[in-house]
Every structure is written in C-alpha cells, then in structure tokens.
Specification:
mainly alpha, two-stranded antiparallel ribbon, 7 helices, about 0% strand, Cobalt transporter subunit CbtA, transmembrane helix, CbtA_put, transmembrane, membrane
Length: about 280
C-alpha cells in the first residue's frame, strides 16, 4: 500500500506544481521581468559611475538561455518537478501519520498534512527569509543565504514533528484541545527564538562590510560621489506584489496536493477504513 500512496503523492505533486506554475506565470512572472529590468538599469548606472571615476568596467556576460525560454519552459519544468518532489515527501509524511494521529478520514488527514507541509517547508522559513525577485541579493552572500534558508526549513520541519509528538503525548492527560494549543504554543515560542537568533540577510558579514548594517539586501538608491541619487531604490510595491504572489503559488501547490491526494487516498483506503473511521470526523 505504501508504494500506491507514494505514486498518488507523485501525481498530486505534479498537479499541484502545474497549477502553481500557471498562477505564477500569470501573476509573478511580470514582477520578475520588472525586477530584471531594474537590475539591468541599475547595473548600467553603476557602470556609468565607475567609468566616470576611472574604474574598470566589466562587460555583461550573455545569458545561456533566452528570457522567453526561462520564463516558460524553465520555470514551468522547475515548478512541476518541485511539486513532484513535494508530493513524494507529502506521501511519506502521510504514510507515517496514517493510523498514528487518531482516527481521521483520509481526506481530512491529507489536508492536515498539506497544511503542515505548507507551514513547515515554506511559510515559516518565508517569514524569516522571504522570497525575493532576481534584483535583490548580492553575489557575495549567495551561499550564506542558501544555507540559512535550508537551516530554517530543517529546523521548522523538526520542530513541527516535535510539536505533533508533544501534542499526542499530552492528549491523554489534557484532552485534544488543550494538548493541541500547548503544542502550537511550544512550536511558536521555539521557532520565534530561532528567528531572533539567526541573522537577517542585511546583517551578513559581507553586507555589513560593503554596505553597512541593514535589515535586508533590498537595493537602496544608487548615488554618485556627491550623494545625488542617480538611480532609485527597488520599488517596495513591486517587492510586496512578488512576495504576495509567491505565497499564493505555494498555497495553490499545497492545497492541490492535499485535495488531489486526499481524493486518491480516500478511494484507496475506503474499504479498509469505512466501518470504524467514517463516523469519527
């Protein structure tokens, strides 16, 4: 049965990735293109300043793939493959939870696992290190940013599993409601402390040394040697829109995985669970 559940997870993940890509292609892609245009304009302004100051100017390297190919085939394939990977992980988590977290209907359990996946893998790490369009971020900090984000994802998942285990352990003594509230509170407190301890991206050593101490790596206005602004900072409204649509794409991804997998799992498990489970939730 485990193999059948994994296969259904892959199908649900592929469907989720496809739906998320369609949404992102319509709403997020224009924000990405605008960010790339901003980055190009800022680089041109910086080169003009460097040239006027007698500094060497490096020519931009051509892209290996056209922008059209990146925005359609590249992102689409990437999101579908990511959805399939998340679907496989979802199916493993579902299989582990099946029969171990109370008598839940297959569809109810699927949606709860989907909510956990969205929160643990994406949204909680996003609160500390939110998604950014191409123009935001310095080349010198790519590895540090990647490692910090992966650390947040790992810790969030571990703490989420710990919160579920804590709630299950407390349920016999405190009841479902109180045990769930205490488990959620414990998760929020610990993940909050972790967020406070980990550095903000603008406070990484390379950023502090080069640009000073800031909360993020969002580009500030570019100025000449007299302090006159020659190119504006990154548009805050556009950054907000990109992040909003990024969250929307992930909501769709995990929502479709939960719905599709729940439907498929219900058909697979119904004969085994119909008699004692159907009336519990």
């Amino acid at each position: 049965m485990e193999r059948q559940l994994i296969l259904r997870g892959l199908l649900a993940g592929g469907a989720g990735g496809l739906v998320a890509f369609v949404f992102a292609r319509i709403f997020a892609e224009p924000q990405i293109q605008a960010a790339i245009d901003y980055e190009s304009g800022r680089s041109a302004a910086q080169q003009t300043l460097d040239k006027a100051a007698g500094l060497p100017v490096e020519a931009a390297e051509p892209d290996l793939f056209s922008r059209t190919l990146q925005a359609n085939v590249g992102i689409g394939l990437g999101m579908i493959l990511f959805g399939i990977a998340m679907g496989a992980l979802f199916a493993v988590a579902y299989t582990i939870c099946l029969g171990r977290v109370g008598k839940l209907r297959p569809r109810t359990l699927a949606m709860l696992v989907a909510v956990g996946g969205f929160l643990g893998i994406y949204f909680v790490p996003f609160l500390k290190y939110p998604a950014n369009p191409p123009a935001i971020g310095h080349e010198e900090t790519i590895h540090d940013r990647g490692n910090l984000y992966l650390l947040m994802v790992f810790c969030s998942l571990v703490l989420l599993v710990g919160a579920v285990a804590l709630g299950k352990r407390l349920t016999p003594r405190l009841g479902n409601w109180n045990a769930t509230l205490l488990a959620i509170a414990a998760y929020v407190v610990v993940i909050g402390v972790l967020m406070a301890v980990l550095p903000s991206l603008g406070q990484l050593a390379a950023n502090v040394q080069e640009y000073g101490r800031h909360a993020t790596e969002t580009p500030l206005p570019l100025t000449d040697d007299k302090g006159t602004i020659v190119y504006p900072g990154f548009d805050a409204d556009r950054l907000y829109a990109f992040r909003l649509y990024s969250v929307g794409a992930q909501v769709l991804l995990w929502g479709v995985i939960g719905l599709v997998f729940g439907l498929l799992a219900d058909r697979l498990l119904r004969p085994r669970t119909a008699t004692p489970v159907a009336s519990t939730v």
